[in-house]
Amino acid sequence: MKVYHISAECYPVAKVGGLGDVVGALPKYQNRLGIDASVIMPWYDCAFVNERCFISIFTGEIKIGTQIYDYHISKERDNVLGFSLYLVKIPGLLDRKDVYGYSDESIQFIAFQHALLHWLSASQPEPILLHCHDHHSGLIPFFIDYGEEFKSLRGMPTVGTVHNGQYQGWMGWDQAVLMPAFDWAHRGLLDWNGVINPLAALIKCCWAYTTVSEGYLEELFGKANGLEALFASESQKSHGIVNGIDSEVWHPMKDALIKFAFDHTNLEGKRKNKMTFCKQHGLTYRLPLFSFIGRLVHEKGADLLPAFIEAAIKAFPDQFNMMILGSGDAETESKLIALSERFAKNVVVTIGYDESLSHRIYASSDFLLMPSRVEPCGLNQLYAMQYGTMPIVRKTGGLADTVVDISQDGYGISFENSTVSEMLEAMAQAVALYTRKNLLNQKRKLMMEQDFSWESSADKYKSLYQSLWADWEKLSKK
User: Where are the domains positioned within the chain?
Assistant: First the structure.
């Protein structure tokens, strides 16, 4: 079974969020299950690409509107990621440093999908399954079925995974002239509310779609940024499969980015990591260390952090430390920086993203705060628990699926609504728990004993693929 994962992100090549972590790990675990899984993504001017050896395997040209673009397909030579990695380079479009944020982003992703399908249709005589991640590859199932250039791929099974349904890749119908030629009679499959919606097209045209947790699948039926009716109408082909974590990258006994190794049988290394971390950042070791890691955006509840920190300082004076790592909304960033200057002994803020620092934060923190308004799966809480750091989460999506509250003999603290008052109530529980060291360590050991690895989820994907493959074989014999 040959599977291509198609994504804008893949760790460690290019990562903005959880999408990169998933696509950087799932294919590796699938290969161990006997699936021939690879990744196709855009070429980026980044350290990974510039420091590795890539072999050119195909060149071609595509027409975008009235312009002809050359494209190049290269393959990473040494299989360092545990799966084959293919990059699509288009000079002038797919040759940039950043993943997102360009004014012609819609054209970039149209070109990306056009080029990779042009290549696959010319070079793949064997059957393949295409696994499309989020809206950046959402047009592919439609193009396979109705694109004039891709008849050799017609009927190939496709899977779509929704990592975050809030982002859908909307574009005006004027962009249709930039797409590869397709059967205009089926243009309705691209449309949602009068615009081209790649995520909607993905759900309409793929053979099956998955979400990154069972809880998030249920949420999409009632809250999906305008696509609720579509998800519900296509529910017969839906599957909720919770993400896993790559335990070879995220494990306190194997992690080269932290100073002291530890596991659930001996937590001394966690104590030493915290002591070193607090000394480096001017924090008091004896106080509980709370942390937040992620994008400073509304859906993550990050806009609540400034008011929460001010209220917490008043409610728990000199009783906690806070470490924040992230970037996003400029106003939130400036408020957090100002707070870190006012309360330098207790609050440290690092704007940006630092992979190494994030590992040290997980290894050193006592509690991780996730007041998310939307969290399809969430990986941060899984990383935190792997490192014995208790998650404090709002009960939504994957957070509700993976974090069991301590009131139910679990290993986390949860609250219902993304409000400062409920966050303070949760913090009060954490501060009280911190004084009960034996109980806290029992909870740490319990969470670290949980299995959040990719093995189980990868096996569920294998079963889904096999089912689709069987359907394809039946159809191909007719």
Answer: 2-244+455-476, 268-448
Q: Find out whether 213 and 401 touch, Cβ atoms under 8 Å.
A: yes
Cβ(114)–Cβ(137) below 8 Å: no
Q: What is the DSSP string of 107-132?
A: HHHHHHHHHHHHHHHHH--S--EEEE
The architecture (CATH level 2) of 2-244+455-476 comes to 3-Layer(aba) Sandwich (3.40)
Each residue of 444-461: pLDDT tens digit? 999 999 999 899 899 999
Ligand-binding annotation for 274, yes or no, is: no
425: nearest Cα among 364, 347, 371: 371
Whether residue 82 is predicted with pLDDT greater than 80 in this model: the reply is yes
**Which homologous superfamily does the CATH classification assign to the domain defined by 268-448?**
Glycogen Phosphorylase B; (3.40.50.2000)
Q: Evaluate whether 79 touches 131 at the Cβ level (below 8 Å).
A: no
Distances (CA, A) of 195 to 41, 188, 198, 343: 25, 10, 10, 48
Distance separating alpha carbons of residues 109 and 112, to the nearest angstrom: 5
- pLDDT given for residue 302 in this prediction: 98
Q: Which two tokens stand for residue 214?
A: 């069972």
Give the Cα separation of 386 and 454 in Å (integer). 13
Q: What is the pTM of this model?
A: 0.90
